[in-house]
Amino acid sequence: MSTDHHTFFAINDNANNIWLGYSLQLLTLQQCARWLTQDEQHYLSQLSAKRAVQFANGRALLRRTLHQQFQTACTDVQVSLPDGKAPTLTLGGQPWQLSISHSAQAVAVAFSHKGKLGLDIEQLKPRDYAEFSRQYPALSGSTQADDFYQRWTAAEAYSKFSNKALLDVLQHPLTGNYTLKHLPLSGYMLCLCYQHETAGITIIEERI
Questions:
Q1: Please, where are the H alpha helices in 117-187?
Q2: For the whole model, what pTM was predicted?
Q3: Do the beta carbons of residue 99 and residue 162 sit within 8 Å?
Q4: Low-confidence ranges of the chain (pLDDT < 70)
Q5: Helices in the chain by DSSP H: which ranges?
Q6: Chain-centre distance for alpha carbon 42
Q7: What count of other Cβ atoms lies within 10 Å of the Cβ of residue 170?
Q8: Helix/strand/coil percent split, the chain, to 5
Q9: How far apart are CA 154 and CA 165, in angstroms?
Q10: Residues 6+ apart with CB under 8 A from 162
């Protein structure tokens, strides 16, 4: 855990702003350590090597992004441990919206003071796109990689946004009061699902 002592100031966010941070390279557990709490460090010991690295990178990227944007100290950022539900974020005692996603060597986080959101990032890999399209109505019509991964990440992001099971989401074309933003990346597709169409989105790419 970092011993930096930066004063956390109240983020006076009256707009529906969203911050989206991502990295296409994972840090080692040792590199993440200074950004993790003792409880998170203990939780890591219960995970496989792969899951431990993914978990640590998600929490570390969140705190680094918050520190970069708002000069928050690590101790001002509380994130719930996994318990079968989406993680919750508290900043300076105030609840915030949070979504974390990872795939292969990529990790992404999105957070907002207001409005629900869901985030998904997926590595682009060859698949039987036509078969997935026939099997799941939410993916219907996707026969090429870009289109397939736009639909797939949209379903994943909407699943987190709506708190509905992914398999249930895939059974129907996506409808509802939400906005999608896709971000094609090198070897990956990212999708953010959020509540307010007029939300301002700040995108931060972390290069290691």
A1: 129-135, 145-162, 166-170
A2: 0.91
A3: no
A4: 1-15
A5: 29-32, 38-44, 49-70, 129-135, 145-162, 166-170
A6: 22
A7: 20
A8: 35, 25, 40
A9: 13
A10: 118, 169, 176, 178
